[in-house]
Design a protein that fits this description.
36% helix; alpha+beta; Glutathione S-transferase Yfyf (Class Pi), Chain A, domain 2; 6-stranded antiparallel beta sheet; Rossmann fold; 6-stranded mixed beta sheet
Length: 359
């Protein structure tokens, strides 16, 4: 878990440091625009991904800084982990114990999951947003999963360009073989995750529906890979300059509310938020069981759309988790009697007060 974090020229923070000292719950308070969510976003970058806002990297640097930024943490297992961007750079850099590492290496050290108001409509929004959300969760266990998806997108783009420019079949065969192999790996990872998360997901059930996922439920990976390669060979036409093929880039995830016996997308906003929080709690449990790690959970405005009963249930479940919770938008009274809680006040991009229970 995180023991200390330092933000330098990140968003509206010039230099902000929080020393956690073993706290399990870090509750961040402050007015709108004070920099609360920026702290959660900075932590989310330590996952190796683009962060909880999915923002352009150039927008993360402080407006009156030198154009760069850094997020530096010391963890409870005495590792120093840093994500930074130097002035004039266009990409992030990652370091572990002052050694340069690929961004993908970060997820092996910190298991981070987040929930923001952006995800409140995950059951109602488009398929691509929902698919990206679940693929992010899968990456907590399979760091290569998000890399496979990125590689697949590049291959699909290359394939479209070759078809458009009249490339020969040998070239296309080589691309299609790669697409088939990597697509089966992605589909298999999604099926594994759905099966494992459902063991801990008490109020809901996750399902994945897609061409390859459905095929893998009935056939071996080799058979599916060969069948999909044949499908790609037979579908090399463009429609209106667009390549129209099915595959894991079209798959969708669903969540069924077991208490109401209804698909989550047709339940109320509050019920959707409750089942979404239960999903994150189940995910955190799964991380701890599978990896032994204590996940870091980032909750931005977590109590929105929740009634008092649902809020109390959520807080009780959070306190029992083997995890570290960083949250905004929560009533600090809920945690005032919990000894492992730290309260951080944020004001104008600065940390103005840090209080631990009992101080």
């Amino acid at each position: 878990m995180i023991e200390q974090i330092t933000l330098t020229n990140f968003r509206n923070h010039a230099v902000s440091r929080i020393k956690i000292d073993g706290a399990k719950n870090i509750i961040i308070t402050g007015l709108n625009g004070a920099g609360k969510t920026a702290i959660l976003e900075a932590i989310s970058l330590l996952s190796g991904e683009r962060g909880l806002r999915g923002a352009d990297i150039q927008t993360l640097a402080r407006f009156d800084g030198d154009g760069g930024f850094s997020v530096f943490v010391t963890t409870s297992d005495e590792n120093d982990i840093c994500v930074s961007m130097n002035s004039g750079d266009s990409n992030r850099r990652a370091k572990i114990n002052n050694e340069n590492v690929p961004l993908s290496e970060l997820s092996k050290n910190l298991r981070i999951v987040w929930l923001t108001p952006r995800e409140d409509r995950i059951f109602m929004d488009g398929v691509s947003e929902r698919r990206a959300f679940f693929d992010h969760l899968i990456t907590s266990f399979e760091p290569s999963h998000i890399g496979h998806i990125s590689h697949l997108n590049k291959l699909l783009s290359e394939r479209g360009g070759v078809i458009k420019n009249g490339g020969d079949n040998n070239w296309l065969n080589a691309i299609d073989k790669q697409i088939a192999a990597i697509s089966v790996s992605i589909a298999a990872g999604r099926i594994r995750y759905a099966g494992e998360i459902n063991y801990f997901f008490e109020t809901g059930a996750v399902s994945v529906n897609g061409m390859l996922e459905n095929m893998l439920l009935e056939k071996s990976a080799t058979m599916v890979e060969n069948a999909y390669f044949e499908y790609l060979q037979n579908n090399r036409n463009l429609i209106g300059d667009k390549m129209v093929i099915d595959g894991v880039h079209k798959s969708d995830f669903g969540v069924f509310n077991k208490l109401l016996k209804l698909p989550a997308q047709i339940t109320s906003t509050g019920q959707q938020k409750s089942v979404l929080l239960d999903l994150i709690l189940a995910h955190a449990k799964l991380i701890h069981i599978k990896t032994g790690a204590r996940p870091i959970i980032l909750l931005d405005e977590a109590d929105s759309h929740l009634d008092i009963g649902a809020r109390e249930k959520m807080f009780d479940a959070l306190n029992k988790l083997e995890s570290q919770v960083w949250a905004t938008g929560l009533d600090i009274k809920t945690f005032e009697n919990i000894p492992e809680s730290l309260f951080v006040t944020c004001q104008n991009g600065m940390i103005s007060n840090i209080v631990r229970n009992g101080d």
